[in-house]
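Ligand: tryptophanyl-5'AMP. Inputs:
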Amino acid sequence: MSKPRVLSGIQPSGNLHLGNYLGAIKNFAANQAQFENYFCVVDHHAITNPQDPKALYQQTFDVANAYLAAGLDPKEVTIFIQSHVPEHTELGWILNSFCYFGELRRMTQFKDKAGKHPEEVGVGIFDYPVLMAADIVLYDANFVPVGEDQRQHLELTRDIANRVNYRLGEGTLVVPEPLIKKEGARIMGLDDPAKKMSKSATTPRNYIALTDDPDTIRQKLRAAVTDSGSEIRFSEDKPALTNLLTIYSLLSDTPIPMLEERYQGQGYAQFKSDLADVVVEALGPFQTRLRELDSNPDYTLAILRDGAARAQAQASTVLRRVKERMGYVLPS
Ligand code: TYM
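Predicted complex:
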């Protein structure tokens, strides 16, 4: 029996951080055997914000290398760069005609980015969720593992897929479901537990980058904001400690109640120092592998090229299915 299919993607923009790791990458690797997997580096999404060309180039490798360093097996899993498979942009264009202006205008991420100057926000940022829908449905993906911040985009993808099926006939597209874990799906900023940990944060104190060295990790955790009081407890009125406990628990595989018990009566300093040890230890092997991969870009590129060929074989079937049903004259 064939396995259910999974697709996810990460933007090569800014530094990958612990939120990306716990909300996405770690789960991709942990669950790979259950699924038929497609993971892409979504470079067309990254350029919706201006990118320095050299940085975009390097960050594209960084995301691919993070997939590999986390343990995704390139023989089993298809890892590729979005722009290597032009079907993404072509289907993205077609899906624009199945999506409404009002739907895109309501997207929270768009509203955040548009901020106070909605007239000056890029059309690419506005249209971004439609390309994301194309990324997913091109692979007949059943599930999409993501962090909480992508839930609304997944709902839109489902609406678009249902609309396509209604107009072009059932079975045109698979309607995907989000796979959002209960823990780790929304890791918050170390400098402000009311905001998510983010690649585009204004200060590096917001996040632990996956490439931070042990000293930097210790320093950032020492400086992390805590809540008033001194209790180490997981609760709504303690958002900072709740976040730190979540990170501790996921990286050490220790249930949160056990941690609460272990740190009863102890101060924040000891807790933060132990948490730093846990983070350093958990990221150690990943970082070693990342450095090896970073020194051999040809190896990664070969995997990405092979992945693109496999991805395109699948994506072209779905694009053809959609175009045929719409009445396009196909070239062959
Ligand atoms: P991106 O590149 O911003 O983030 C990559 C993944 O990391 C998750 N994530 C987090 N998880 C927990 N806590 C956080 N603080 C945190 N920050 C980020 C994200 O939810 C995501 O899973 N639109 C997507 C990229 C994309 C995509 C796709 C995803 C394009 N096409 C198709 C899935 C399927 C994005 O910007 O993710």
